[in-house]
Amino acid sequence: xxxxxxxxxxxxxxxxxxxxxxxxxxxxxxxxxxxxxxxxxxxxxxxxxxxxxxxxxxxxxxxxxxxxxxxxxxxxxxxxxxxxxxxxxxxxxxxxxxxxxxxxxxxxxxxxxxxxxxxxxxxxxxxxxxxxxxxxxxxxxxxxxxxxxxxxxxxxxxxxxxxxxxxxxxxxxxxxxxxxxxxxxxxxxxxxxxxxxxxxxxxxxxxxxxxxxxxxxxxxxxxxxxxxxxxxxxxxxxxxxxxxxxxxxxxxxxxxxxxxxxxxxxxxxxxxxxxxxxxxxxxxxxxxxxxxxxxxxxxxxxxxxxxxxxxxxxxxxxxxxxxxxxxxxxxxxxxxxxxxxxxxxxxxxxxxxxxxxxxxxxxxxxxxxxxxxxxxxxxxxxxxxxxxxxxxxxxxxxxxxxxxxxxxxxxxxxxxxxxxxxxxxxxxxxxxxxxxxxxxxxxxxxxxxxxxxxxxxxxxxxxxxxxxxxxxxxxxxxxxxxxxxxxxxxxxxxxxxxxxxxxxxxxxxxxxxxxxxxxxxxxxxxxxxxxxxxxxxxxxxxxxxxxxxxxxxxxxxxxxxxxxxxxxxxxxxxxxxxxxxxxxxxxxxxxxxxxxxxxxxxxxxxxxxxxxxxxxxxxxxxxxxxxxxxx
Length: 631
Hints:
CATH superfamily of the domain at 6-208: Cobalamin-binding domain
Keywords: 4Fe-4S, Iron, Iron-sulfur, Metal-binding, S-adenosyl-L-methionine
GO molecular function: 4 iron, 4 sulfur cluster binding; catalytic activity; iron ion binding
CATH class of the domain at 6-208: Alpha Beta
Number of helices: 24
Helix content: 25-40%
Shape: globular
Protein name: YgiQ family radical SAM protein
CATH topology of the domain at 6-208: Rossmann fold
Number of strands: 24
Organism: Spirosoma telluris
Radius of gyration: 25 Å
Region (Disordered): 609-631
Oligomer: single chain
């Protein structure tokens, strides 16, 4: 294997800066993740964009925030600004389980070691930088900053927090996928425009002194939220705020959002329209090495990188709008798809990787089968305010053709260096069920499914029905479980036709808002009847900027302001989760006693059979044995 020169990566040390012959650095990026130069890692994308615009960029990856802060000082004062991100995950989701237990590993750190980033990393890093370099602007980005840009509930502290701009003391925040606003910021920075004058850029947020006049820009109308202080006193007002934020975040012609926070006003400018094909290609076609920085070699592999190094992200965004999911909140509900040429070029790059053995682990995206899907008449999309294009029914204006994916899969298959290209991302199964998705006149869904099942399943196929109760599914913004049953029939038929044995792996969530204990017992019984012994289950975690988080905190649905029951205590949550494991002896007595208390002997019979045949065990409260699914 030929060693690449160190200068192929963006610099992590002063030695690397000097190797490039630079006398100073223009922008320093500070990240909670290790530096992997790959388009799936936000710091690499942002750094490469800055480099492509002519800036000298250096990265401080996972700095030590506990010592004399030498990591933060190593490049000195940048010419323009610091960019700060917690990394590819919210640092609190990264650190803690749904039961608020500290995780023992970190997938974005060499060797999977935990402890290399602080809680609330964005805030901690920014405060340190502002103390060391008070006159240098700090720009926030990444999922932690994006989803905490407005008053939000923090599950880990069990309290409302103001915009992260307030606690961090940063100068500006870019929300969502940041390429478009970043390019605008870079143009102005080069012209010498200070951050305090950058007030007319889409998709940024900043704090404004309430004692001075707030100017209008770009003919934007403004909509005002209940203040942070009002939200602290009134949970219903907080819930009502969320609806405004979600609606405006997904509009093409959105309003500017204002919120009073103490003696300041939070200003959130409207988002950019979804990137066109050429724009998203530009991000993926930058000169990534597609490798972790060489400094990590002796520290062990980076699990998140190992998982995606032979995968291809074909698109961004998700029009599902699920209540518990942050994808549409951060990436947007409108799908931005790459060109076929860009995807094939990346596949070709992967085949040159020294460890590549002929297998692509994933041709996918946030939801694997949304590539090239968008509105047939985009003028209708421009006026749309719905948070989902497929709930409660599929929008008649949505083009759900799977043909572009089928053709692209075949082109990848035809490449000489490819033995198999798998689809590892979760498939949105409801798009493939004719009773739910009527738009299958030319049979393109069936053609796609045949191609998927026979050529692109790596042993098993992941789908996410999430629940079996229609009431809970409505809160989740997911379709009825009857459509999963129809999908399974279709899937099994194809398997039988081709003599395949590839299990279908469904994901479910326990203790989601709107779900009661009997609903979980029903779920266990229904899935047992279908032949499943569930392992891939997830205990609900309320994450900022989701409908489910707002319900969990406020007790009401933000769109109706009507009460929704939610399991909150550890005991309630564990009780719901236990029903998944009806097949484990240590749970059987507990389940029998619980269902008898609920007066549901019918469910006892369905789950456990008759008492004589039952192999009784002792009740167990040892915790959650479930697998985890990242969202």
